[in-house]
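Colleagues,

Please find the record for the two-part complex below.
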Amino acid sequence: MKYSEQDLPDKSGHFGPYGGMYFAETLMDSVLELEEAYEKYRQDPEFIAELEWELKHFVGRPSPLYHARRWSQELGGAQIYLKREDLNHTGAHKINNTVGQALLARRLGKTRLIAETGAGQHGVASATVAARFGLPCVVYMGAEDVQRQAPNVFRMKLLGAEVRAVESGSRTLKDALNEAIRDWVTNIDDTFYIIGTVAGPHPYPKMVRDFQCVIGRETIVQSEDLFGRQPDALIACVGGGSNAIGLFHPYLDYDNVEIYGVEAGGDGLETGRHAAPLCAGKPGILHGNKTYLMSDEYGQIIETHSVSAGLDYPGVGPEHAYLKDIGRVNYVAINDKEAMEAFHMLTRTEGIIPALESSHALAQAIKLAPTMSPDKVIVVNLSGRGDKDINTVAKLEGITL
Amino acid sequence: MSRIAACFTKAAAAKRTVLVPYLMGCDPDMELSLALMHALVEAGADMLELGMPFSDPMADGPVIQAASERVLAAGVRLPQIFELAAKFRETDQDTPLILMGYANPIEITGHEDFARQAQAAGVDGVITVDMPPEESVDLSASFEKHAIDPIFLLSPTTPDHRIEAVTQYGRGFIYYVSLKGVTGSSQLDTGDVAERVGHIKTLTDLPVGVGFGISDPASAASVATLADAVVVGSAIVKRIAACGTDRARLLEEVPAFVGSLRQAIDQA
């Protein structure tokens, strides 16, 4: 059976055993209301037309599919094409989803937006649509991430959002999610929670996926135009997994396309200091869904480690968990050092500074391309630009700016 | 009859509202937590709710978050919570014991193992905050097998059709979350609680307990006239935290506070 024929998630929001609605009762009604609204508007021509207009004129889509010729040559194998999500307005794929959710929020009559953010890209994308539609916005961000992503914090403030640093737990993305959920439960009547990834309770994994699938749909058309067929392999980084599912999902029925999801290996899987639940975790329940998680033998969530704030999360979207189990997607890990090498290599050979998150996907291409012949094609999702990371990179390399 | 059912039957006969103090298990340590549990029963608690710590307590406010972080840092995990429950049960056969926590530790332990261990430790009911009835079919089956009541939450936002589903799957009692917010918030609207609890009682025969936002004798008294049980958490956990490991102070101040709640409830 084709993947699309399974029509996942099912009615109750499950991808096989994963996903679902594991949420506190106070939020259940709002989540069910959102599900109902989403099911209605996703088929509403007026909503679809408005979303397409925003994606074209505000986000700047379609994003190019760019042949990285020099880099492909240097690696000496398959031709590498980059899906340039870094060229979207605000510099990452995150805006595809925040535009969609903001349009829904307006239709639901919600007057206040909240969001969580790790690297700050989703926070910036949320603050941007909040400004665009004239809604107040509060962004929760782990205190450690506020430190490592200072430029994005300032961008959010310029856009009029309030950034609340979260000091609890590990002070990173998961704690920002906890705090956003606490805000939502307290302000449920007027607040819309824009989740930035394909996690959370149903319908978020489905809804965010659908908004991000524009990446893969464009890639299918552009591949046909540029090289007359579909690629042999796709690669994308996976934190929560929204850029990856956006590229992968429209391709799941294409059996000849090999798909690689790249998790953050941190200091290396063998050290335990990483953020790779699919490669080294086990199924559990967190933030509204059942999925692979990094937790100890007693079910406490373990602190994760990655050079990239956007991948520093102990869970992953439930559809990725399912795609791992059925073997359709190969999930691998790239450690900090390999990602940094890829960051520099792309910057110097193609004049493109990639986000540290996307650098994990690029590092997998460095491994994969030389094993393939030059007539093969790899598409890498360049999910974001790296301007936000220059402070992190400078610090790691002992440079004072 | 289960301990929970017996507790409510006895209270109803005495026209008494059930008082349920919440403490984080093993806060500040196992020995003091055990002594405190017995002292609270002595001070007028009818039932005890023990928090199971979790690294990501999404429904809890700062007070219970801090308690969770404290005991986790001291190495407390589910085995210690079961050990505490079992020790309490050695000398108290009557007071119902409820565990409250989050899904992942239960999931990782395994539904069947968790239910078996809970039963062996003398636990009577379990509240899993982030496991609504829709997702709890398998866990509830394990609970039923081991005579544990699955206790579900209802909130100010729960619509009628969900109330009916929740009351159908719930056992022991229904826990009404009295406000939109996290534990320990202070925006209790007694009028609203009265209306909602009254409405829920038309839809179920289960006793209805009210918690979240009850912080002092006055708010406890105002809720006591409406509900079958009153749950007080953050206000107690905050006092436990203030005592540190000062045994004498802990065993004096916290039971005294629970005693004042008891008195206010009985006079309401």
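Residues 49 and 120 of chain B are 17 Å apart (CA to CA).

Comments are welcome before we finalize the supplementary table.
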